[in-house]
Structure formats: C-alpha cells, structure tokens
Amino acid sequence: MIVVSDSDILSMFGKVGALQHLKRLFEEIYIPPAVYEELMRAKEIGFDFVDEMIEEKDNTRIKDFEAVFE
After folding, report:
1. Which SS3 state, helix, strand or coil, does residue 3 take?
2. What is the pLDDT of residue 45?
3. How many CA atoms are closer than 13 Å to the CA of 56, on its beta-carbon side?
4. 42-60 burial, b if ≥16 CB within 10 A, otherwise e?
5. Cross-strand pairs, 3
6. pTM: predicted TM-score of the whole model, two decimal places
7. How far, in Å, CA of 40 to CA of 9, rounded?
8. Confidence at residue 44, expressed as pLDDT on a 0 to 100 scale
C-alpha cells in the first residue's frame, strides 16, 4: 500500500522510534514538499528523529510527493 503522509504522523512515529512500523505497513510513503520543509526545520532545531527519515528518503522508501505527479 502507498500512503501520503503529513508531518504530524511522521514526527510522532519518529520521536518514539517507531518508524519501522510505518515501513512495515506501507510499501511507499509520499510526502509533500511542505512536509519535507517542516521536517528539515525540526532537524535544524535539534530533533534527531528526522535523520532516519532523510535516510529513508535517500533510499526511495519515503518519496517526494511532487515526483509522483511529474
């Protein structure tokens, strides 16, 4: 299953170290550019949970929403 996520869900799962559950449930997770920007702001102020999401984005598990519609 493919899902489009907002920053609230990704942040909550990330903060409690449970991103693996989202990965297990969804084949691909798409994020809108605004969500990506919010996550980058969270990283800038010191939230480490964003690092795992960035790594997944680089591995194409979490995808940029705009790319889907190009």
Report:
1. strand
2. 93
3. 23
4. beeeeeebbebbeebbeee
5. 29
6. 0.69
7. 15
8. 92
